[in-house]
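Quick illustration for those who missed Monday's session on complexes.
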Amino acid sequence: MSLCDLAPGYIQAIAPYQPGKPTAELARELGLDETSIIKLASNENPLGVSPKALAAMRALLDGLARYPDGNGFELKQALSDRFGVEHNRIVLGNGSNDVLELAARAFLAPGLSAVYAQHAFAVYPLAVQAAGAQGIEVPAKDYGHDLAAMAAAVRPDTRIVFVANPNNPTGTFVPGAELEKFIAALPQDVLVVLDEAYTEYLRPDFRYDSIGWLKKHPNLVITRTFSKVYGLAGLRVGYALAAPGVADLMNRVRQPFNVNSLSLAAAAAALNDEDFIRRSYELNCRGMDQVVAGLGQLGLKHIPSYGNFVTFEVPDAAAVFRRLLQLGVIVRPIAAYGMPGHLRVSIGLESENARFLDALKQALA
Ligand SMILES: *Cc1c(COP(=O)(O)O)cnc(C)c1O
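Prediction with pyridoxal-5'-phosphate bound:
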């Protein structure tokens, strides 16, 4: 028996996460000029990094010989000022991926289970499996979360229910009132991890006050990220808001310096760059209209999306994905999400959206 065979079976069974293809990789593979490639595969902000975040990082470069603040005081203070939550309710992470895993590591173990929806974010099954717990996948309803079925799927050994709102890759959304009813009806000893990676992209009439629910529902964990509207995906920084006891457990299992100095400073600055956030939001609204109209003109059906991406149905999606690559356009195949007949495209700059639609037309011809 080899050393690797001795790793726990649940570790050996992990199917690695499939990220969006980096532009440099496609350039190498196809001999393309990297600057000619557009990547609409990872729901990044097409406007780049917030200018305030850039300035904060530049001011910090000379201090990089020092370890970061392991408690992330300044970023916690910025979050606290912004959202009215105490520091002891905040867990900072190396991306929100990190805090999702911290929740799983703190509350799951072999013999326990976690519930999530079919077509939900791929990190949930990964985090559950890495903790040795059992994942319970609940069939989607119209590609979105079927909250009634998810509540019914909770077993005595269930410790976490994951909900992504809006969901990635489907872009579906559950109204806040339904969500709160769902949380209120769950047993108090089941943690609800509410992943709000795209919440800043919600239209004002769809926004809801999940942070206000924290005091009523001590089993609620809200996770958010600086990777999407804040434009800091490459830095890896996100956070969770939870009851103090839950946050304490999650903080105990994190690495002491899981968020680096640049990320801490950039995130605190980006959080308050209102102008950049508004421009990003507005660009996304216009781009969503542009892409949805273009898909319609090509006769393709899409799933109405509340995020900064849209998923559409296309005949022979795998072949269309490859043809788009040859045309220098990277989108995201989502067969691994149980959706082999769909592709997901992130909303880019107007010119990028136009190039994507043009390439898609060629790829379909
Ligand atoms: C992008 C995304 C995240 C954020 O990932 P980071 O690790 O913060 O970059 C979390 N949840 C969902 C649903 C996402 O799509």
